[in-house]
């Protein structure tokens, strides 16, 4: 018998994997997949036939859910791909700072203050679509400035805004804002 002592470190997130395996041939359009270590939404899938020297292959085209970049990968259809655990959570928007950080109210009554409005023009355009409004100008950086103004105006008008946060693989980002009506005040 060996007198060696083995020590194992455990982490708080032990067992909480960021991805899970799924056979490439079962992944479809609008599913999620990891391409080049980034969580992506699949926008296009094509499968080639089995060749002389191998498996049928799946060609995936995905859009990174956090930066909007287009990524591609080719995987044998019988092999496993990593699929991210993607979560979407809605929080009530409490405030927005001058530097674009938002204050969100969690379900248990705490505040979440570590998220900033996206600055990428294409991601900001999606936020405008969710608010059913159009930016007041199309100059460079105007989306960000206009969204900031719309949120501040919404607060002053008593609107109740909800921010949708998407999280996957250790990243999270605001990807949607909704106006759910005026804030109710009790007398």
From TrEMBL:
Q: What is the lineage of its organism?
A: Eukaryota, Viridiplantae, Streptophyta, Embryophyta, Tracheophyta
Report domain Translation initiation factor 5A C-terminal positions: 85-178
SMART domains for this protein: eIF-5a
**Is Nucleotide-binding set as a keyword in this record?**
no
Q: Which InterPro entries match?
A: IF5A-like (IPR001884), IF5A-like_N (IPR048670), IF5A_C (IPR020189), NA-bd_OB-fold (IPR012340), Rib_uL2_dom2 (IPR014722), Trans_elong_IF5A_hypusine_site (IPR019769), Translation_prot_SH3-like_sf (IPR008991)
Entry function: Translation factor that promotes translation elongation and termination, particularly upon ribosome stalling at specific amino acid sequence contexts. Binds between the exit (E) and peptidyl (P) site of the ribosome and promotes rescue of stalled ribosome: specifically required for efficient translation of polyproline-containing peptides as well as other motifs that stall the ribosome. Acts as a ribosome quality control (RQC) cofactor by joining the RQC complex to facilitate peptidyl transfer during CAT tailing step.
Similarity comment text for this entry: Belongs to the eIF-5A family.
Q: What is this protein called?
A: Translation initiation factor 5A C-terminal domain-containing protein
- This protein's UniProt keywords: Hypusine, Initiation factor, Protein biosynthesis
Q: Which PANTHER family match?
A: TRANSLATION INITIATION FACTOR 5A FAMILY MEMBER
Q: Tell me where the signal peptide lies.
A: none
GO terms for biological process?
positive regulation of translational elongation; positive regulation of translational termination
Q: Which organism is it from?
A: Escallonia rubra
GO MF terms, alphabetically ordered: ribosome binding; RNA binding; translation elongation factor activity; translation initiation factor activity
